[in-house]
Design goal:
The two termini are 35 Å apart. Helices cover 29% and strands 21% of the residues. It is elongated and about 65 Å long. The strands form 2 sheets. The protein has a 4-stranded mixed sheet, covered by helices on one side. β6 and β7 form a beta hairpin. By secondary structure, the protein is an alpha/beta fold. It folds into 2 domains: 73 residues, no CATH class; 64 residues, no CATH class. It contains 5 helices and 7 strands.
């Protein structure tokens, strides 16, 4: 309250900038592509059969999707097989990542956050919003913090009304 008895929302009038990592969440669905069903006895990659399977696979199913390519068993998959999948899937999929859906989401966040212009937050007091309606991976919080460190004067985690201090730029002795 101020002297006149009027309530003042200090959070709303502060110069805190909130980043919601859920705003970076992919709009495209993440679809897993398991190599296992394309292996002989789910274990051995036979080149001729694999190439034919890749040629005949309906890649259009991945149109506009994020493709997570992995093998769910311990088969030894030659590197060229992943490359071959990419040659077919890249005509349809929005993005292609190595790993399962969770690993693809981490890679997606890394890629998006690495491209973002963090310099715009020079000297800013930042809040990284904690609660999310989407499954933002913890690694995204790590990544955004490392990107903000050179620029932000302070970084907090949580909600603007209830934050946990994470970083504060030391005061310069000028």
């Amino acid at each position: 309250m101020n002297n006149g008895g009027e309530l003042i929302n200090r959070v709303a009038s502060s110069n805190l900038i909130t980043i919601k990592l859920e705003d970076f969440y992919p709009e495209a669905e993440i679809i897993e592509f398991d190599i296992k069903p394309f292996l002989y006895k789910d274990l051995i990659l036979k080149e001729l059969n694999f190439r034919e399977s890749m040629q005949n696979h309906n890649w259009a199913n991945y149109t506009g999707k994020i493709l997570a390519v992995f093998c769910s068993n311990d088969a030894i998959i030659p590197t060229w097989a992943y490359m071959l999948i990419s040659t077919h899937a890249s005509k349809y999929a929005e993005m292609i990542f190595f790993g399962n859906a969770n690993q693809a989401l981490i890679q997606y966040y890394n890629q998006i956050l690495d491209k973002f212009d963090w310099k715009q937050f020079q000297g800013a007091k930042m809040v990284i919003k904690g609660c999310s309606d989407k499954p933002v991976p913890p690694s995204a919080y790590l990544r955004v913090t490392s990107h903000l460190l050179p620029y932000a004067s302070s970084i907090m985690y949580g909600e603007p009304c209830s934050t946990v201090p994470v970083f504060k730029q030391p005061k310069s002795s000028v």
